[in-house]
Every structure is written in structure tokens, then in C-alpha cells.
Amino acid sequence: MIKLLPKQENAVWYLRDNVTNEILYGGAAGGGKSAFGCMWLIEMCQQYPGTRWLMGRSKLKTLKETTLNTFFDVAAKLGVTGQYTYNDKDSAIYFHNGSEIILKDLFLYPSDKNFDSLGSLEITGAFIDECNQIVYKAWQIVKSRIRYKLNEFGLIPKLLGSCNPAKNWTYSKFYHPFKKKELPGYRRFIQALPTDNPHLPDSYLESLRQLDENSKQRLYYGNWEYDDDPAALIDFRKIQDIYTNSFVVGGSKFITADIARFGRDKTVIGVWDGFRLVKIVEYGKNSVTEAAERIKNLADFYMIPMSDVIVDEDGVGGGVVDILGCNGFVNNSKPLDNPETKEPENYMNLKSQMYFALAKLINDSGLYVECEDGSIRDIITQELEQVKQHNMDKDGKKQVLPKDVVKELLGRSPDYSDMIMMRMWFEYRFKFEFSVA
Ligand SMILES: Nc1ncnc2c1ncn2[C@@H]1O[C@H](COP(=O)(O)OP(=O)(O)OP(=O)(O)O)[C@@H](O)[C@H]1O
Ligand SMILES: [Mg+2]
């Protein structure tokens, strides 16, 4: 048998009421968040025969390696291992009373940015472990799928998430409003702390206390203000602002484009009015001539000369530059001189220099991205969160995280942020200075 911890009892209260739809059980490590989510799913499956529940995480592989093991562990402690069968191929746990738990990958794959793969799913409720690793849209889509057999059992939709402190939507939608006592009635937040859980070994608490300051604050004290990765170049709040900075004034028009290449599946083109990104166009894999044609059409429509168009020249993009006769952007080329002082700047390469300039622009509230599409906003936000300084402890030339590291972190290429970053080139390039005699 398991006796619930006081915080877990607290969460149960919200999971049983008929007002709360979304509960975030978040904070420090080891507070019993994952175990609690598993206990809840087991109880629901037992109590409501024939219902269907989702157990989700950013990556299915990690879900199986971590949360699922917690599930087996909890099931053993509860003495219910005889009540279900786990089918690895289906990624599902089938209870003998007809209830089931489906294990789901909730990662944002650009090939399915609207989560259409969840479209036909009908569930009774859901538990998402480490939900700070998924995008807000995924959270919302899962919530929208909760309707299966609710009426039959007199239930309302319940979505439970667990996470460690993170400066993303879990902070802005749950933690921050909770602090300000402004959480809407259908949302609840429960702060988890390792000290809530007497079942943790003392040695584990000790090892949490030995972490670096940042991790210790987050994982031991459950401090939500400490997620600031010192290497991050852009303030996360300022990234949120780019979609609402409509006061940014327009100016000269430009086009920047990142062309799909081998192993990547998107061409992303941006049309600019000063620092207002007024249009984002994306295409699946296309030929060099097609990409060039699309850029040419946009340039004609918006009346933008080729000298104000720049295309990523690495790889396939080189062909587009040749066809259009526009500017080419070579990531690894030499940094440009400071446009004001005409002095060289100390960067590893052009790309790093432009990303630092972009970070400054965003931190100064100088960028506006006009985009109504929530999934594209999520993608852009995620990519900008990865704009970080590489090897910041080392002296020498400043550099952003290399692309292969970013790809590893995002699970895709940062096509959108690269397209946005290239806009800074026009601030650095040689400018004509007319002098009237
Ligand atoms: N009510 C309980 N009774 C007994 N043991 C519990 C209880 N709740 C949690 N535990 C145990 O405490 C340990 C930590 O719990 P769990 O893994 O759920 O924490 P967590 O908050 O998800 O941690 P992390 O932040 O590392 O993901 C596990 O071994 C779990 O089985
Ligand atoms: Mg956990």
C-alpha cells in the first residue's frame, strides 16, 4: 500500500473536484510527481472500467525509460501488477477491466506541427510527465482530446502535468499567475519540493545540495526564478514580447530566406518591413529553381530589389543566390566590421555575430513578428530559446552554439531563427552614404 504525501493529497483534491481542468504539479526534484501521476492513472483505470487515459512525455523513448518504470514500481507497491498487461509494441497498458493507458510522444515534429497525429484520439484524461519539455500547443491539443466516456461516468476533463521549474509556458501560464493569485479557476498549481518526500534517501538530498547554484535553486529549492541559463543570449520574456511588439516602426523592406537542403525539409522565407517580420512563408522540400521563383514572386509583390534580399548560401542555397543574383549569407565567413565604429568585432564567424546582434535587438524590444499561427510562434520561440553562447568560460572569440548541438536540442534544424537572424546582415553591410556637395 502507498500512503499519499500531503502535496499529493492536495493534488488529488483538485483531480476530484468539478471545477479544475488543468493541474500543474511542478517544482523541485524528487517530490513524488511522476509517482503521483502514475498512481492517479491506475486509480482512474480501476474506478472507471473501459476508459482510456494518456500518459505522455516529450519523447516516447524517454517515457518508456523513466515514467513507465515508475508506473511499474508504483503498481508493484500498490499490489496491482496482476490487473493489467503492458504491450510494448502498442505502447499501451491494458487493464483487464477494459481500461487502457496509451503512451504518447508529444514532441513537436515540424512534419506534424498541428499534432494531427493526436487528432483522432479520444481520451478520458491525461498525465504528462516533465511537461515543460513539450510546447504549449501540445498541452492544449491533449486537453482538447479529453472527452471519452466523461458523461457516462459524470467526469470533467482533467489534465495533470508534472515538471521541474522552467522559464517557458509552465512559468507564464501557471507559476507566475499562481504567484500573483491570478490563476483562472480551471487551473491549479502545486509547488513540489524534495523535502515533501520522506521516502527520498538523505544522500539524494545531499547530492541535490551539491549541484551548481542554478540547478540547486531549481531542483532543491524549487525556485522558478532560477532557470536562467547564463549562456542564453535572449531573455525569455523578451522572446514572448516579439509577437506583441506592434509598436516597432517599419522601414526599408527586405527578404531573408533559409533554403531546404539535404536532410532538412523546409524552406523558410521572411518578408521584412524594417524590423517588422510581416510575412513568413514556408515550403516543403523544393528544387532550387522553385525556391528562387518563390522568392522572386515575393520580391516583385512587395517591390523589394535583389540587393535587399539575402539567402543562406551554404549548400543548396548557393544555387538560389546564383539564379537570383541576390546576396548570399555564408555562416562560417568572417565577421563584418561594426557599422558605426568601422572596427572589427570579436566573433568566431558571421553567424555568431549576427545572432548576438539579433539577441540585442530582441532584448531591446526592437523586433516584431507578425504571426497569428500559434504553432509557428511555438517553433520560433523554441528556436530563439536555444540562442546561447558557446564555450562562455573560455576567452577568445564569441560564438553561438554550433548547429549540430542546437539540432540535437531541438530535434530539428533552427530554420526559422536562422531566417530571422539573417535580417541583421542588412544592418552591418556596407551602406551607401550620400554626401550632397
Ligand atoms: N506517496 C509515496 N509513498 C511512497 N513512496 C513515494 C510516494 N511518492 C513518491 N514516492 C517515491 O519517491 C521517489 C521519488 O518520486 P518521483 O520519481 O515520483 O519524484 P519526481 O518528483 O517525479 O522526481 P523528478 O523531479 O526526479 O522527476 C520514488 O522512488 C517514488 O516511488
Ligand atoms: Mg519525475
Radius of gyration: 25 Å
Count structural domains: 2
| Gross CATH architecture of the largest domain | 3-Layer(aba) Sandwich
Q: Which hetero compounds are present in the coordinates?
A: adenosine-5'-triphosphate, magnesium ion
Provide the low-confidence segments as ranges: none
> Quick one: overall form?
elongated
SS field, number of helical segments:
17
The computed structural class is alpha/beta
Q: How many beta-strand segments?
A: 14
Say what the CATH topology of the largest domain is: Rossmann fold
How is the largest sheet built, in terms of strand order? 3-4-5-2-6-7-1-8
Mean pLDDT: 92
CATH class group of the largest domain = Alpha Beta
What is the makeup of the main sheet? 8 strands, mixed
State the fourth-level CATH superfamily of the largest domain: P-loop containing nucleotide triphosphate hydrolases
What separation lies between the terminal Cα atoms? 91 Å
What portion of residues belong to β-strands?
Answer: 15-25%
Question: How helix-rich are the residues, as a percent range?
Answer: 25-40%
